[in-house]
Amino acid sequence: MVRRYLNLWGSFFANSLTRDMEYKANLIGGIIVDIIFYSVQYFFFSIIYSYVDTLGSFTREDVMVFLIITFISDTVYMFLFSGNLFPLNRLVVQGDLDFMLLKPINSQFLVSFRYVKSYAIFSLVILVLMLLRQSSLHSADIGLMNYLYFSISFFCGLVIWYSLDFLIACLTFWFKNFTVGGWLSHELLKFSSRPDSIYTGITRKILFSLVPMALVSSVPARMLLYGLNVKLLMFQITISLSFVIMTFWVWKRGLLRYESASS
Amino acid sequence: MSIHIQNISKSFTSFKREAGLKGAFQSFINRKYETFHALQNINLDVDSGEIVGILGENGAGKTTLIKLMVGLLYPTDGSIHIDGYTPWKRKNEFLKQISVVMGQKNQLWWDIPASESFLLNQKIYEIPQAEYKKTLEELVQLLNVEDKLNVQVRRLSLGERMKMEIIAALLHKPKFILLDEPTIGLDVISQSKIREFIKFYNEEHNSTFLLTSHYMNDIQALCDRVFVIHKGHGLYDGNFNALVNKIKPQKKLIFEFPHAPAEDMIVSLQQEFEFNLIRNVVTAELPDKQLTKLLGSLFKLDDPVTFSVEELPVEDTMRTFFSNPEKFL
How confident is the model at residue B329 (pLDDT cuts 50, 70, 90)? Predict the structure, then answer.
């Protein structure tokens, strides 16, 4: 089962790459735009954070690692999901979901993974190299185990982000046309691009439970920088599992309301 | 695959409002919903290997019925069983045995050649490589698109694109195929090729076909049996030619005399039969028996230069039917 779906994803990737390569300028332009975007962001935040010694519990060098992790989350998300979840509203409103529902595979999988933004892989490679470099420069002793905990936590963070985005996109089944959902996701994303320690009070509670965007990048950064925090990792795993289960349920409920569109 | 549809109904809820800004405001504050009954108590049984045409005007409920049969929609009431499967449960085993071609929607990826989408379908339907290759070759040859396989879909003509859609739909050898306006927008040659292909495929594979089309020539060429839907109700289920004869049992006679016939003879014949005479050509639209009698009488007057007896255009007949279906049934 897992092998079949991995194979299928491989086919989606091959198809998307074939499609992206049909338009050379667009592909090369996409890679350049991504590199410029992350460079500008990195440069901009480096300047801002160079004026402060600490941000919440993060030191200046922690923040640099955190920033790169945020960019990696963003790129992986773009690579896997950005071409799929944002257009869900159009698929539902225009009835284009029809052909996806007729395929003998899990429809949520198909809707979530069918298009891979293939060229994001170039930015991803650059960002991973940047992370390795930044970690090696960090004063903390970052060992292999840190990378393992980071990977688990990073995966959970991605699951949380996907789930939240997917749940918002599914609202279109109830509201018929909910293009604002895409923008809502975009705004929520901003909460994950700031260190969790800056949030306090009720905001912190919300960002760790109802809208757990604080768990997307900050927790993986903590795992990498400070090593395993069992309580925090277990909490993140629980939240990611709860959210992903919620997506299965909401998707099924949403499909009950799907009306397709007239021919 | 046999299909058993029992008392199926489907309603949609939508809101209505008056036109204009005022209507938009009123609707925003106090939205008024209404229920639209797209289908009501539809019953239909289809045997394996049949080609059944679904007829109805725009908005009659044809596409809704098709979407219920493939499980895209959930019914408000009633049941559908297709070889023991309930469509809207969307079991993979069921989905592997069906296929839908929608004339107005694409399943192929627009920016890449159709062959790439076919490869993706091979993976999705788990078609073994040898079988995939054989089926693809067979379909490509039958539809005569060998040289178009590696052309971007967006660069294909409408007819070529439809052929590729049909290939994509048949690669996994479905047993039950639904065609929703498969020839829409195509020129007459492409229409006829697709018709020939469907007929051949049905005979070769004994697949069950359900077809909706506004082109009555499609229906006439492919379907012995039709199911007529009118305003969400099943109105007729039976032989297509029998329906046509019921609506307009006439045939058209054109009889050309060598010279204009004597006027008194014509006047006397016109008392018995309804026909027109322009110069020396008689034209009449009459039921079979009357037409034979008239023909005999005309032969008695003189031998013709030429004469013909034709079926009336089925498009015209069906147009008459849909203007007031209850009148004929």
Answer: confident
Percentage of chain B surpassing pLDDT 90? 48
> Considering only CB atoms, which chain A residues are within 8 Å of B120?
11-12, 15
The ranges assigned to domains in chain A are 2-257
Beta bridge partners of B251: B286, B311
Contact at CB, A258 and B63, closer than 8 angstroms: no
Is the Cβ–Cβ distance between B17 and B23 less than 8 Å?
yes
Quickly state the pLDDT bin for B28 (edges 50, 70, 90).
confident
- The answer to whether B150 and B115 are in contact (CB under 8 A) is yes
Beta strands B233-239; B276-278: pairing state: unpaired
d(CA A105, CA A185) in angstroms, rounded, equals: 27
Q: Which residues, in sequence order, are CB contacts of A209 under 8 Å at separation 6+?
A: A239
CB distance B24 to B229 below 8 Å: no
B179 has a chain A CB within 8 A of its CB: no
pLDDT digits (tens, 9 = 90+) for A93-137: 888 899 999 999 999 999 999 999 988 999 899 999 999 998 888
Tokens linked to B165: 């859609």
Which of B13, B91, B95 has the most A C-beta neighbours within 10 Å, making it the best mutation to test the interface with A? B95
Closest Cα in chain A, distance from residue B109 (Å): 9
Average pLDDT, chain B: 89
Answer yes or no: is pLDDT of B192 > 90. Answer: no
Is B92 in Cβ contact with A15 (below 8 Å)?
no
Q: What is the pLDDT of residue A56?
A: 75
Cβ <8 Å between A107 and B152: no
DSSP bridge pairs for B10:
B39
